[in-house]
Specification:
Layout: H1 10-22, E1 27-36, E2 46-50, E3 55-57, H2 65-78, E4 82-87, H3 91-96, E5 103-111
Antiparallel strand pairs: 1-2, 1-5, 2-3, 4-5
Length: 112
């Protein structure tokens, strides 16, 4: 399977997420649902995360991935979905490195 997030398509992300789930792992799926201005990944980009800290895909090209993975782990544990907002005016966005001048919303849900 490809390791470069720029060449991993949605089918690969979903196939791997299903494989993790079928293996009994907790899995969360993060999907870019809104962008504004300059954003590193388009709407529909996905990142799957397992409870074993495995990841495939990308929602940001790296600048907010760490924060999304942390939130995904919480979603796996709690079961409740989250809508994450990152933008140029958000203090958290600068902390995680979203200095591209845009805004991105990422929906994170647990796969059952």
């Amino acid at each position: 399977m490809a390791t470069d997030a720029s060449v991993i398509d949605t089918d690969d992300v979903l196939t791997q997420a299903k494989a993790w789930r079928d293996a009994g792992k907790g899995v969360a799926l993060a999907t870019v649902v809104t962008t504004w201005g300059s954003s590193p990944r388009p709407v529909g980009s996905q990142l799957a995360v397992s409870d074993a800290q495995e990841m495939i895909g990308s929602v940001s090209g790296g600048c907010i991935e760490g924060a999304v993975v942390t939130e995904a782990q919480q979603v796996i544990d709690a079961g409740a979905p989250k809508l994450l907002d990152f933008g140029v005016s958000d203090e958290q966005a600068w902390e995680v490195g979203l200095a591209c001048g845009g805004k991105v919303q990422v929906f994170v849900e647990k796969l059952d």
